[in-house]
Amino acid sequence: MLELAKELRSAGTPAFVFRIEALCRLSAEDSFSPHDEASPTAFARWKVKRGPAVALLDALDEARLPDARNTSALADALARLSREVGSAGKELRVIISSRASEWQGDGDLRAIETAIKGFRVSDPSQEAQIKVKTLRLLPLRKPDVRKIAKHRGVDPDQFAAAIDRAKAANLVSQPLDVQLLLDLWLEAVGEGKEPPSIFSSRLQVYEDIVRFRLRTESGQERRSNLDPLLGRQACEKLAAISVLSDVQDFTSEPDKPMAIHALSALSSDADRWTEMDVRQLLSYGLFQPSISGRVRFAHRELRDYLAACFFRRAIGQNAGSLDVVKPLLAEGLGCTEVPQSTEHVLGWLATIDPIARRIVTRIRPSLLIETGDPTRLTVDEKSRAIAAHVAAYRERLYRGEWFYQEDVREFVTPDLAPAIGEQLAIATSPEVRELLVEMIRFGQMTSMAADLRTIACDQTEGLRVRAEACLALADLNDFSFAHDVLAAALLSTAPKHEDTQSAPSWNLFVASAVRYVVPAGVSLLDAIALVDRFRREAKNYASATAMLLEGLVAELSLDQLGNWLQIFLRFARAPRKSDRDMMPTIQPRFRMLGAPICQALDRLLQHGGEVLPKAVRLEALEFVFGLNGRQSYSLRETSFDKLATTIRPLNDLKIDLILMRLALFENMQSEWYVARQAVGPLKIDRSDKAVEVFNSKDIERLGALMAEEQTERDRDLYFTCAQFVFDEIRDAEERKHANAILRNLARTHGSSELKRAYGHLAPIRRLKHQFRHKIASVKLV
Q1: Would you say 633 and 590 are in contact if contact means Cβ atoms under 8 Å apart?
Q2: Which end of the chain has the least Cβ crowding within 10 Å, N or C?
Q3: Across the strands, what pairs with 260?
Q4: How far is C-alpha 15 from the geometric centre of its chain's CA atoms?
Q5: Are the beta carbons of 312 and 353 closer than 8 angstroms?
Q6: Mean pLDDT across the stretch 726-734?
Q7: Is the pTM value of this prediction over 0.85?
Q8: Comparing 122 with 676, which gets the higher pLDDT?
Q9: CB neighbour class for 72 (10 Å; exposed up to 12, middle 13-18, buried from 19)
Q10: 3-state secondary structure 379-422
């Protein structure tokens, strides 16, 4: 609010900040925010001069808390402000800030509307002009978090990576959340910790956040008389009730449908709770606004963690009995299951309570991998979890349990190699074998490279398992088995060309083998033969295979990349099509090569592109333009927006491409048709978020070509091309500059018709034409 007031005043609009807790009891002159020294002067001047102004009423929640006695604080403050400003308030705008727990919905809205009517002059025509809007802060995006970190002097890349490692991205949705984690970060750096080790414990991050949001010392962002320990236990209980009832919202008012009455939920505790206490509790930063004055936990993961803390406390109070956690489980068909709604609660509970950990290991060991904080588990506990997970596949091959790679990476360590080797020897399910190989890969278990070679070369092994073994060998940087894997891949039986159902798994294996053997320096012809083994697959599967090849493109040297770009083009590029403006198309069987070609070209052009002959550069660029707009290649999939940023300053390259395409239509007579065919396809999808390809310098280059031509037709052709380029420029300043260049070209080198259209009298002629057209229309009517 203070910063907003400063911005408004600097823009020429009087603005003043009031504290609602003071304004509801004192005069306006005694209610200004002590942190905004300019408010009294701005208010006094405005009352004399009058006119538009903005009154910022800050902290409605602090006027109603901690005593919760003054429920009419807002109405009283607005009434006093109305009396103070008098008739000067007819152009006054009011902005009010509050915590969600103290916003009373329709009641507060009615109070605001009544007060604003009192500001306005008594004129019925102004009734409809009263507008009241209720707004809330949007969650921060990742770029916003990075900007805040940079502003605090913290490396944004390191901070973002640490947040991802702790799986705490959902905990930095508000500026205060980010500032808290940055404080913790700077404190850890001050203690001498290295950035990779900060936030290494997800449990510690969550505990620090909960502790911070429950603090009530003087100077914090909220007021509360609650004991922090009592508040913590109450929040844990509310979290457990929310999980078990599957109701998210809380309210301090009874008889609200689809909401938990917090006072009733807490009233069974030994400590007595009042409505005042509950409202203070719901004002904590652990909660965020919902609808109609209700609140809910700010983050579901934070709620699950607090619920787990409640059950841990309950287990301790019941002498270690696990009967208290039975509500988190479900019984069916003679076995105990974990409902989806309580998975994360049990995962956290297994992290923080060793007694509960045993039952989770027995019933659902996968929760120890994908939830909670796996770094808190010992090697023996992890080994038992892996063994229990493999044992669950004894009666079935597939259970549909897949894990995010980051979860597996956080769970495994090199010490688990003996346990994983033991389970690989007995596991028969392809699904669980793939997971075990993933654990070898992300745990960097170099001692098991020979086992990976055996799996990758085994013709009876599942294709996805073999693919994961190839990727594991590549990540371990062990290329001693590259020739063995290449020979096995070339000898493996490929699915038939028309079998699109088997193609995704096959292509995944082939791409993984390519990713492994190419950096190892195997024979180029053998590697090309391996690429030729790709099979056509459905469009929605092609991007998964492409991602592996993009990883290869990112690792190759520039010389190798130039060779492989040409190889990929030979496979992927199909003949031109007349119904697509003579643009090249992509071979359906090699659709997965589109994204790697785009990324390879971008990387080569960023380094000058000298390793590629000019003809290859133009061929590749035209091919990538041909991918744009096709259903199976969005801009995100092909990184086209990044490539557009790279080629935008390469004006000579773009002009050479236009000239190459003009040669395709040299026998056509219409300059407009030739220019449209040549330049029209060289664009990205029309979107305000897309990056432009052309700029005004491209028009200058076309103007230079126009000046060199002897025939009027060729000059008009280049000018028409420049017009099509102009149509693709959307930046206002760039368009203005480009339009000036076009006018100069038309007047200097254009035909008589162009000079007439772009001459000094052209605006008058257009206005005259519009006037004649209007008169003719009136006569017709």
Answers
A1: no
A2: C
A3: 250
A4: 36
A5: yes
A6: 87
A7: no
A8: 676
A9: middle
A10: HHHHHHHHHHHHHCCCCCCCCCCCCCHHHHHHHCCHHHHHHHHH
